[in-house]
Amino acid sequence: MKLLTAAQTREADAFTIKEEGITSTDLMERAAKAFTCWFENKFQPTEEVHIFCGPGNNGGDGLVAARLLHERNYHVKLYLVGDLANASDDFKVNQERLPQDLKPQFIQQETEIPQLQQKTCVIDALFGTGLNRPVIGLYAQVISILNDSGACITSVDMPSGLYTDSQTPDEGAIIKAAYTISFELPKLAFLLPQHEQYVGKWHVVKIGLSQQFISEVETGLYFITQQDAQHLVKPRKKFSHKGLYGHALLLCGGFGKMGAAVLAARACLRGGVGLLTIQAPQVGYTVLQTAVPEAMTLTDKNRKHLSELPNEITKFDVIGTGPGLGTERVTKTAIGQLLATAQQPLVIDADAINIIAGSEKLKAQLPKNKVILTPHPKEFERLVGKVKNDYDRLQHLREFCAEYQCYVTLKGSHTAIGTPEGKVYFNTTGNSGMATGGTGDVLTGIITALVGQQYTLEEACLLGVYVHGLSADLALHTVGAISMTASDVIDHLPKAFLHLSQPMP
Ligand SMILES: NC(=O)C1=CN([C@@H]2O[C@H](COP(=O)(O)OP(=O)(O)OC[C@H]3O[C@@H](n4cnc5c(N)ncnc54)[C@H](OP(=O)(O)O)[C@@H]3O)[C@@H](O)[C@H]2O)[C@@H](O)CC1
Ligand SMILES: Nc1ncnc2c1ncn2[C@@H]1O[C@H](COP(=O)(O)OP(=O)(O)O)[C@@H](O)[C@H]1O
Ligand SMILES: [K+]
């Protein structure tokens, strides 16, 4: 599914209005109804609801929500903030439509800003996607007082003051919402960790924006939905055999870190690979043969560290490497050999990334259109240098993928997948239970398995991160976030694949 910029969202609104032959006021009514419907499910009419409206259409939504909630017997207090001489047309229409017994209070100076009790229910309709400069002055004072009050703030479409798709300047005030209710699609800003304190929990409510416009508009930004993931899963054929699902090689593990190889290998098997061979240093032999009996194990000549590639490397369909390797000199040499000789796709993680990041020569040797790198943010910075903020990180992601013609799954709460053509996909599954050692090794195993099964590199990244997060979401029900381990994520992979294999409604 696509993510739209603020400008594209405005175009989508205008297109929908024209296509359906409705007025912008009608669309506003529809949007505010969708918002109110969510709100009514969340908050009881017993509480006071304080609604703060700005001068544009976001404020217009606030006015409609005030009218609708008032009709439903909520105790509404309505505040219209700032100079309303240039308020939008739909704002003015809806100000006229307020019932007689719902009198707004006007806030034109700081002394008129109400002091709210902790936990007071607030709707923030100051600014949405039309924000065009940082919020300062009176609006910033309102935002600051609301934030400091400890009120429970629900933002309409966007937390006011936050830019939709670019870095908000430091001087701009931003609402800290508990909930943000976005119209039709999520916004890029919601997916970036630096905005967690502003966006709170976000939900999307449908307002019937033109599907034709959304399908035709050009964007490089996407988020992965369950439907997308379901479309990717390839059912198995009745007369299939293990030879059809790929022979994967994992070059993983080192002294004291053989667990990483075990996790990657188990995840690779649960990811559906046909055959799996692991090459590991000698200390890993018994561990791997015992912990992962389904896999074949080759031992390195080195006792503690990976130092060589297997002889018959051409027989493997995909090679995954990195988890638990360490960065010993011998291992660096082996990774250099791998990049120089491997003909098959490579899934590169953890210490293999660190080794490559430390050498411009190795970076230049990354084979084009054959590599998936799976760094966490620190590993990514080792590859590209220090980044200034989350937008800068995304820019580096696009540039790196274009320069090296590779795929990168930049891991995080919403893992971002960069492609050589400049697209970025955000994952929507996963939870904080995954913030524990070894979950990244599991992802390496899953993606390696998918590439082995002839998924394209892009498909393997998209399905891999989605199913990885989905497993953790399913694990949440049984083990919770605090106790979750990487092994729990592997244990729930079967359920996750079953979930995605069910026929679509
Ligand atoms: N279009 C539609 O049909 C639909 C739109 N919908 C809703 O509309 C929202 C977008 O509405 P919008 O485009 O009117 O912009 P909005 O976010 O209200 O702000 C613009 C106003 O704020 C002002 N302003 C801007 N920055 C400022 C600042 N820093 N400090 C002070 N002032 C500032 C700016 O003033 P100006 O730049 O002219 O001085 C202008 O008056 C969208 O998020 C959704 O909620 C839904 O109802 C669905 C149908
Ligand atoms: N708060 C979170 N929400 C969702 N996913 C998370 C969260 N924290 C971590 N993850 C996921 O867990 C994995 C952690 O990977 P990584 O840091 O490489 O772990 P390790 O190196 O210990 O294996 C990534 O796939 C990441 O997307
Ligand atoms: K808002």
UniProtKB/TrEMBL annotation:
Free-text cofactor note: Binds 1 potassium ion per subunit.
Key words of the record: ATP-binding, Isomerase, Lyase, Metal-binding, Multifunctional enzyme, NAD, NADP, Nucleotide-binding, Potassium
Sites where the protein binds (6S)-NADPHX: 57-61, 128-134, 139, 157, 260, 324, 376, 441
SUPFAM superfamilies cross-referenced by the UniProt entry: Ribokinase-like, YjeF N-terminal domain-like
Keyword Ribonucleoprotein: no
Domain YjeF N-terminal: 9-215
Annotated InterPro entries: Carbohydrate_kinase_pred_CS, CARKD, Nnr, Ribokinase-like, YjeF_N_dom, YjeF_N_dom_sf
Annotated CDD domains: YXKO-related (cd01171)
Pfam families from the UniProt entry: Carb_kinase (PF01256), YjeF_N (PF03853)
Record-listed AMP binding positions: K411, G412, S413, H414, T415, G440
Keyword DNA-binding attached: no
Function: Bifunctional enzyme that catalyzes the epimerization of the S- and R-forms of NAD(P)HX and the dehydration of the S-form of NAD(P)HX at the expense of ADP, which is converted to AMP. This allows the repair of both epimers of NAD(P)HX, a damaged form of NAD(P)H that is a result of enzymatic or heat-dependent hydration. Catalyzes the dehydration of the S-form of NAD(P)HX at the expense of ADP, which is converted to AMP. Together with NAD(P)HX epimerase, which catalyzes the epimerization of the S- and R-forms, the enzyme allows the repair of both epimers of NAD(P)HX, a damaged form of NAD(P)H that is a result of enzymatic or heat-dependent hydration.
Name of this chain's protein: Bifunctional NAD(P)H-hydrate repair enzyme
Organism of origin: Pontibacter rugosus
